[in-house]
Amino acid sequence: MTIQRNVPVARPRPLARVLAPYAAELKAELRRSWRTPAYVLPCLLLPVLFYLMFGVMLGRGQTSRYLLATYCVFGAMGPALFGFGVQLAVDRAGGLLTLKRALPVPPLAPLLARLLMAMLFAIAVAVLLIATACGLGGVALTLLQGIGLLAVAAMVALPLGAIGLLIGSHAEPDAAPALVNLVYLPLALLSGLWLPLSVLPQAFTTIAPLWPTWHAAQLGLRVIGQPAGGNVPMHVGMLVAVTLVCALLATRRLRRIG
Amino acid sequence: MTVHTPPLAVLQDVQVRYRNAHALAGISLQVHAGEVLALLGRNGAGKSTAIAVMLGLRLPDGGHAELLGGDPQSRAQREQVGVMLQSTGLPPKLRVGELVDQFRASYPQPRPLADCLALAGVHDLQRRFYGQLSGGQQRRVQFAIALCGGPRLLFLDEPTTGLDIEARQTMWQAIGALRAEGCGIVLTTHYLEEAEALASRVVVLEQGRILADGPLATFRPQLAPRRIRCCSGLDVAVVRSWHGVIDARRSGELLELLAEPAEPVVARLLAEDPLLHGLDVRGGGLAEAFVEMTREAA
Q: Considering the entire predicted model, what is its pTM?
């Protein structure tokens, strides 16, 4: 068998070749998720079940509408935190990350694939929630409001994915799920995603601006015409800052330990 | 052997420190095309660190590393390299063919999928999930990934650990075929017979230093005297003075010699003691050389 020796020549490569490793990573992520129903189903259904309970059965009118926005944020949190946090810890411990670094896999390809997965999950959960809210909760949305809500949900994947990245770059695979839950569940409660902050003690409202998920929820509420705290530049600024800081810390750590 | 092509990988006086300990204390070596270089050494001798530096996974604290004439960390160099690490947990829910395809996508001129699977001996596993495979089968899939880019230089870190004899033979054949294509191969192994079967050159590391570096053929007689045992009444002191005898000792009736070359010594033993019996000649293998050298260094 003869093989051609590729003498490295500086010439632009066709776009398809440039994109191929990115597409391959995304395809692998899609298959990996699709073939793990024990991961996919809770990710998709848990927020909907919670919303059915608190937003539809117990809530009425404005509460159903408020909780639709906050559950869209909650639904985006899980896939982003677990997808980045736990999966990264597993890949790191198993040596897959090192192998990809040693091979010509573009360093951003696995991260982008995972981010896209988290966004897809977030959008899918938001679609289910909107359908539930409109079908069973008596919530009415304009098309633009619906699209806006999907966009907010997808965007939540960025800061939460970055937090997950930070956890996954430090934690051992056994400890990662517990650590993720330690961030996931309190953050959801403290940001008023499960129940409106107004039904919780005042202190919760006071410290709420500390949490990136609260800012995301305020954006969601604005989109569907609900009263919301703060202002848009502040919310967006906070989310961008969390994304950048966590991603920077995580990549620094990965470069050091890799 | 004279090599005219530039080396595929170069380590020049490379030092690596972990905290205060030297993992590599200034080693220099080159890997050439069409050569199988076996890196031998005990656990912690610095084999994996040497590979990590050649691959650009670890920057040296001192010295210089070059991969295919360039920076080991640049993608252009890595596109010509294949790697099989000591252990890699690949996603269990992906099929063998999908996994190899995923890595093929990162190379500019990948080897056809069917070729990769056939060379690694896993063509019949293409549709199986990685998580369902035995440890040995998983190792072979990792080997298929290592060679999927049509590399000019291949790093194999203990490739046949956990393989049965047949699978090991398949991998040895594949390594031979790749070498014949002109691929340079760096191999670490605990199986000395593997280094003997495959390597054209052997580098022995101990405590971050190179103890020996040379073609296998020159390596053996110089470093691995053969061990001769027999039951004989000859005087130990006399035998020790014979040409070729390095050491002689007696325990009871048993006479034990270290000798190289061993053949004339055996002939003389038989000639001088007609009653000699129970003759046993062993060694001259890499295992003896290796044990001898690392014991001396320790």
A: 0.83
